[in-house]
Design brief:
Layout: E1 3-7, H1 14-25, E2 30-34, H2 42-46, E3 57-59, E4 65-66, H3 69-79, H4 90-105, H5 108-113, E5 121-122, H6 129-149, H7 161-175, H8 182-193, H9 195-207, E6 220-221, E7 231-234, E8 253-257, E9 260-264, H10 267-275, H11 281-287
Parallel strand pairs: 1-2
Antiparallel strand pairs: 1-3, 3-4, 5-6, 7-8, 8-9
Amino acid sequence: MTYDLLIGDKSYSSWSLRAWLLFERFDIPVNIHTTEFYQPGFAEDLKPWFPAATVPAVRAPSGAVWTDSLAIFEGIIEAHPDLPLLPHNPKARSAARSLIAEMHSGFMVLRSDCPMNLRHAWQGFSPSEAVLRDINRISMLWDHARSLSGRGPWLFGDYGAVDAFYAPIAARIAGYGLLVDQATQAYVSAHLHDPAFRRWRAMGEARDRTLSEYDKDLPQGPWTGPKALVAQPVAAGPSENDKCPYSGDPVTHFLKLDGRVFGFCNKACRDKTCADPEAWPTFMKLYQS
């Protein structure tokens, strides 16, 4: 049973990130389709997903189309009762659904003033009182969630649908240097170090598409997540491996890391690995062998 998921720009599309994390983190079979904001083909790319007006959109194996993030999450939760998408405890389960719903409909000032941008961090951002109210509300909700589970690092113990929903908020707090308490910062850090989150960001970096619509009139600083190993593309091999660690196909593109050369079957495989080698367990297994 394989789904189809349409997503937008990985560096900027916060709602696409949420849906992708749901499939990625719970190993739900899915074919990924990508479109890009602010380009003429965007409307055409949406047509097969009618009545979707934006991304993400999901086509279920039945042919049904979910055109809203909340509908996607509820549809997947309903279709996969065997997966721990929501907490088992009824009180925690209700709280998780409430947090998802509030994220879906709320925090409009934070979302407007601090659009997600995974390409870099902004320096010197001064949040308004309304943004601070949103952040305080979010911190309170996260504290409440953790009080129901008694353990971490995720809101209700193990990673769940609610954590996928709040991943872009963690990215905003990090990317705009918003001051938060220690518990909130620890939850933000859990997202920044999450290998799935790192893979998403690495793929955005590999695409290397910057949208001026998301710019701020502020100095840019480096991304605040874990520092990536320094790798760079090289024109030719030979490489230590003759088959791509992802596809198993013959290598045609190469990168150098710590003086060693590794090969990949195409530019996308190489560039996403260059962006953050440690985000890719299959590559790291080769690197550490």
